[in-house]
């Protein structure tokens, strides 16, 4: 059983995000760069996720082009 002094992952995550937000505010960082930075860090921590998302976006774009008749169906 975990010690009562150990933080659960969600408590630790909340504390880290709060501290990151506080640092951003202290240094005059707007919310958009803060969110982009957080999302970028998340993608960096999950190898292959960025490529997977890009592939899904490309497939959706190709499907849309096919529906519009701008490229042929294979």
Task: Give a description of the structure.
The mean pLDDT is 92. Helix content is 70%, strand content 0%. The N and C termini lie far apart (56 Å). The protein has one domain (9-67). The chain has three helices and no strands. It is elongated and about 60 Å long. By secondary structure, it is mostly helical.
What is the tally of beta strands?
0
The average pLDDT is 92
Radius of gyration: 20 Å
**Uncertain runs with pLDDT below 50, 5 residues or more?**
none
Residues in β-strands, percent: under 5%
Number of helices: 3
Order of helices and strands: HHH
The helix content, as a percent range, equals over 70%
Distance between the termini: 56 Å
Could you describe the largest sheet, including whether it forms a barrel?
none
Number of domains: 1
* Broad shape: elongated
Which class do the helix and strand fractions yield? Answer: mainly alpha
């Amino acid at each position: 059983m975990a010690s009562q002094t150990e933080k659960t992952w969600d408590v630790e995550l909340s504390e880290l995000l709060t501290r990151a937000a506080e640092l951003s505010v202290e240094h005059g960082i707007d919310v958009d760069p803060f969110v982009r930075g957080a999302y970028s860090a998340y993608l960096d921590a999950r190898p292959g996720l960025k490529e997977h998302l890009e592939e899904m976006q490309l497939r959706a774009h190709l499907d849309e082009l096919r529906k519009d008749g701008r490229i042929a169906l294979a």
